[in-house]
């Protein structure tokens, strides 16, 4: 497996080259069928993208804001408010309760004719759906391993792309939006009802975490991709049948492309982030072309690469948070993400309501600004994510899962290691470096390095990823 060297220089050009060459190691054999319930319902946020025309007409407004803006805001508020009452020990119960209330509110809305009252009821169920999504996000992050997380995000993106294509082709006429949403609510309720309390036990025992650079960099891309994407929803013609077909057809292709990049070429998720930004910049730039022109139509096809951003954002966030986060920090980050996500609806919504002609310019400038910021942060992404001391854990299937399997099978007992070397091996599998190991074991860094050197010598290996491969070889397919 090709890896980014940990001594990569901090200059921008060197970082860009190192990041472009970086690779991940995702093995589909690590997908556990018993975890499908945690894979199939997150992210839920894309359900609202490009659906304002399918759910409500433009005449239904409140406070001069359209239904799309209000429902998106209610979703974000609900995720924060409802999730504030959860704890790891009551997560499964709260998830089931929230799903039941949300489903009940949805049924009431579904039976109501379009009106201001139906919009208010829609806000109630989207508020509850936000709570469901927050619970699902937590499970997605802390319960799944890397392969499950990637395919979970890809499955939701594929479902959304198929829904766009179906809506554009009008195969279910005007009822598609509500039928699709009903299927989503039903699936959500079923999955959340299957949550198991014991699956969250290990999360409760995690040590206290802090907001380190890896998490901050991950949050930057997550918020940036969301902010950039929402602008498209408000552009003229974005909900038309032609746009839905274009987005959906290309989106399906992009989902398979993203999975291929990870499973076959094993290209790093960093490459997916850049593809997303470039595609969105082209999309908004082409909106300056005259309506009806070939280039303007091309923008709708290029926009299908939005799915690349969704998959990259959720996958990266889950991987980094499982490595560095805990329940308290997860909640704290929701407090940061949700207000920004709500602004991502309110700002383009307000521009659309008062100065719609400025939307393409605002979208283009926003995308360009966050993309430039992402590129300028490349040395930091290289240092703290893809070339960090813990990056073996990021590029492997799932170090935490490996430690559990090692403990269950007593693999360390058969390696003729001293008790101290076994402790060091377990900590290495968790991605800790010599300094962290010395702190955990109350020994000097020199002593920690001495044990690491002896451990590697006995096993005939040279680095942590080889230790993982030695103990858990089925996770590492042989490369040509």
Compose a concise summary of this entry.
This protein is mainly α. It is built from 23 helices and two strands. The chain has a two-stranded antiparallel sheet.
Describe the structure.
With 480 residues, this protein is mainly α. The protein folds into two domains: 12-393, Up-down Bundle (Growth Hormone, Chain: A), CATH 1.20.1250; 398-475, Winged helix-like DNA-binding domain superfamily/Winged helix DNA-binding domain (Arc Repressor Mutant, subunit A, Orthogonal Bundle). It is 69% helix and 1% strand. It contains 23 helices and two strands. It has helices spanning 12-21, 36-39, 52-55, 67-83, 91-110, 116-142, 146-169, 176-193, 201-204, 213-233, 241-263, 269-286, 294-302, 306-324, 327-354, 359-376, 378-386, 391-395, 399-409, 419-429, 434-441, 445-459, 464-471; strands at 61-62, 65-66. The chain has a two-stranded antiparallel sheet. Helix 10 (213-233) packs parallel to helix 15. The chain starts with 11 loop residues before the first helix and ends in a 9-residue tail after the last helix. 49% of the residues are buried. The model is unreliable at 1-9, 48-53, 389-397, 405-409 and 475-480 (pLDDT under 50).
């Amino acid at each position: 497996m090709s890896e980014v060297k940990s001594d990569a220089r901090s200059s921008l050009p060197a970082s860009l080259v190192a990041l472009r060459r970086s690779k991940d190691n995702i093995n589909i054999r690590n997908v556990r069928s018993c975890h499908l319930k945690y894979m199939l319902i997150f992210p839920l946020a894309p359900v609202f993208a490009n659906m304002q025309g399918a759910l409500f007409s433009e005449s239904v407004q409140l406070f001069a804001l359209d239904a799309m803006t209000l429902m998106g805001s209610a979703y974000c508020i609900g995720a924060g408010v409802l999730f504030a009452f959860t704890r790891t020990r009551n997560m499964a119960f709260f998830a089931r309760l929230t799903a039941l209330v949300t489903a009940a509110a949805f049924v009431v809305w579904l039976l109501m004719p379009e009106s201001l009252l139906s919009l208010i009821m829609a806000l109630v169920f989207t508020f509850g759906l936000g709570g469901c999504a927050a619970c699902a996000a937590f499970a997605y992050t802390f319960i799944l391993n890397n392969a499950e997380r990637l395919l979970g995000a890809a499955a939701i993106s594929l479902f959304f792309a198929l829904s766009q294509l179906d809506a554009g082709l009008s195969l279910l006429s005007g009822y598609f939006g509500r039928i699709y949403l009903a299927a989503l609510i039903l699936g959500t309720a079923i999955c959340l009802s299957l949550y198991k309390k014991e699956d969250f036990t290990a999360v409760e025992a995690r040590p206290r975490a802090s907001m380190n650079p890896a998490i901050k960099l991950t949050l930057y891309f997550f918020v940036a991709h969301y902010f950039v994407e929402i602008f498209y929803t408000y552009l003229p013609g974005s909900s038309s049948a032609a746009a839905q077909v274009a987005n959906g057809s290309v989106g399906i292709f992009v989902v398979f492309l993203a999975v291929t990049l990870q499973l076959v070429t094993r290209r790093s998720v960093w490459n997916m982030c850049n593809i997303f930004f470039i595609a969105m910049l082209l999309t908004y730039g082409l909106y300056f072309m005259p309506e009806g022109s070939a280039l303007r139509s091309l923008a709708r096809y290029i926009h299908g690469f939005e799915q690349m951003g969704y998959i990259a954002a959720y996958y990266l966030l889950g991987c980094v948070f499982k490595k560095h986060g805990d329940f308290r920090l997860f909640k704290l980050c929701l407090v940061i993400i949700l207000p920004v996500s709500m602004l991502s609806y309110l700002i383009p919504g307000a521009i659309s309501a008062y100065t719609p002609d400025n939307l393409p310019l605002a979208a283009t400038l926003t995308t360009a600004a966050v993309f430039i910021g992402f590129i300028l942060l490349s040395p930091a992404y290289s240092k703290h994510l893809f070339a960090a001391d813990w990056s073996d854990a990021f590029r492997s299937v799932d170090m935490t899962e490996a430690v559990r399997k090692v403990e269950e099978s007593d693999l360390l007992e058969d390696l003729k290691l001293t008790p101290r070397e076994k402790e060091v091996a377990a900590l290495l599998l968790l991605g800790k470096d010599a300094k962290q190991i010395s702190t955990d074991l109350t020994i000097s860094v020199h002593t920690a390095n001495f044990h690491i050197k002896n451990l590697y010598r006995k096993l005939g290996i040279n680095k942590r990823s080889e230790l993982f491969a030695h103990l858990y070889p089925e996770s590492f397919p042989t490369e040509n």
